[in-house]
Write a structure and sequence with these properties.
With about 230 residues, the chain is of the alpha/beta class. The protein contains six helices and seven strands, in the order E-H-E-H-E-H-E-H-E-H-E-H-E. Strands 3-2-1-4-5-6-7 form a seven-stranded parallel β-sheet, with helices on both faces.
């Protein structure tokens, strides 16, 4: 299978890249401004996996950049099978509604929800040429309406919107047998999750790649699931 993964140079994105390569897939690793220092681990993987790994420059905030990334991709392949919208930002932590910086909220919305919209908008034709296709939007329990909590306003709101995007895409693409899911990856030991998290990203990534490989049966009424494919509270 051919995977396109945004935010692929660190955290969960890097783990998804590693696991996909280990499982014999081809990965197009989307990175914003792929300077050598930023993609050191990807370059090390490139030495091992050669043509199975390609780094693609993409800034999901900029539609021109998404189009340019599509151009880079179409020079290397005529299709993809799995699109993983992983790039995201968590900001304004611990702030009350009275303290929120609206520009920071706008940034989070731009990256976390408009970013995936831009990518799907332009990459969908390439995905439609694949087989056993999936769009996997990396969401969060913070986006659950029935399990809401105070704080993390821009992150939680943007992830709730991402879940709605997944539902709409699922309705749109259902007849074409394209799997669309919002996936809660768990509380992971990443820059975003912190060292107190209980889960390593490789463990979460393994489950997510198995979902892409259709090795896990999804029985949820809605498209919001965890990294094992089990239903999340909407």
């Amino acid at each position: 299978m051919k995977f396109f993964i945004t935010g692929a140079n660190r955290g969960l994105g890097l783990s998804l890249t590693k696991i996909s390569l280990l499982n014999g897939h081809t990965v197009f690793a989307g990175v914003r401004g792929p300077e050598e220092a930023k993609i050191k681990e990807l370059l090390e993987l490139k030495e091992t996996y050669n043509k199975n790994l390609e780094v693609i420059d993409i800034d999901v905030q900029k539609e021109d950049s998404v189009l340019a990334a599509l151009g880079q991709l179409t020079e290397k392949t005529d299709h993809i099978d799995v699109l993983i919208n992983n790039a995201a930002i968590l900001n304004e932590r611990g702030k009350s509604i009275e303290e929120l910086d609206i520009e920071a909220c706008t940034l989070a919305f731009d990256i976390n929800i408009l970013g995936p919209i831009r990518v799907v908008k332009h990459f969908l034709p390439l995905l439609k040429r694949g087989e056993n296709q999936s769009i996997l939007n990396i969401s969060s329990e913070a986006g659950s309406l029935t399990n809401s909590y105070s704080g993390d306003y821009p992150y939680g709101i943007s992830k709730a919107a991402l879940n709605m995007l997944s539902e709409k895409l699922n309705c749109y693409l259902h007849d074409q047998n394209i799997q669309v899911l919002s996936i809660h990856p768990g509380w992971m030991k990443t820059d975003m999750g912190g060292e107190n998290a209980l889960l390593y990203p490789m463990e979460s990534g393994k489950g997510i790649v198995e979902i892409a490989e259709r090795k896990k049966e999804i029985t949820s009424q809605y498209v919001f699931v965890d990294y094992n494919g089990d239903p999340m509270k909407i």
